[in-house]
Design goal:
Layout: H1 4-29, E1 35-37, H2 40-48, E2 52-58, H3 63-75, E3 83-88, H4 93-98, E4 106-111, E5 114-120, H5 133-142, H6 151-155, H7 157-176
Parallel strand pairs: 1-3, 2-3
Antiparallel strand pairs: 2-4, 4-5
């Protein structure tokens, strides 16, 4: 590339991608990007250490809880800026009482450690068992818990991965030239 403007745009884009990768990795170190179970003893720490947390209170024998699990497990890796956790309601009597959970599944939405909203059963999802992951995702976007995904995010995943590879290879070249 001989054009200084193009070189600057390219350098800026690579720097932006590096910052984005670092941010995603920091979120992952905090437990983001996966859907995992937490114990009652770990609950407060998990909820207060992240800005946005979605917590599913469930019962292992309830069919509808398994449906919600499936959808949240799909969403967690797509929305790394939000932490996704679940807690067995049977093993968390203190929080079930404190948070007034009466119906399962119950998905509590936390912002900066404070419960700001909840999904009770499938009321917000059309009340039927066959709602789509996209329907749940849209409800959580409207409630401010998930960032709206740009269409190209999904379409450009392969392109972005190739950029990451070129960033890594350029870093290797930089270190080789020292």
């Amino acid at each position: 590339m001989d054009d200084p403007e193009l070189e600057k745009l390219h350098a800026d884009r690579i720097a932006s991608l590096k910052r984005e990768v670092e941010k995603r990795e920091a979120f992952k170190r905090q437990g983001h990007g996966e859907y995992r179970e937490v114990s009652e003893g770990d609950f407060l720490g998990e909820v207060t250490r992240s800005e946005k947390v979605i917590c599913h209170f469930y019962h292992k024998e309830f069919y509808r809880c398994k449906i919600m699990d499936k959808h949240l497990k799909t969403l967690a890796p797509r929305h790394v800026d939000t932490k996704f956790i679940k807690m067995d309601a049977e093993n968390a009597p203190f929080f079930v009482t404190k948070l007034a959970i009466k119906t399962l599944p119950c998905v509590l939405l936390f912002s900066k450690g404070i419960a700001i909203d909840r999904l009770v059963g499938f009321q917000d999802l059309g009340t039927k068992d066959d709602f789509s992951t996209t329907k749940l995702e849209n409800v959580l976007v409207k409630k401010g818990m998930l960032s709206k995904k740009k269409k190209e995010d999904d379409e450009d995943a392969e392109y972005q991965e190739s950029i990451r590879r070129s960033v890594r290879s350029s870093e290797n070249l930089d270190s080789d030239s020292d």
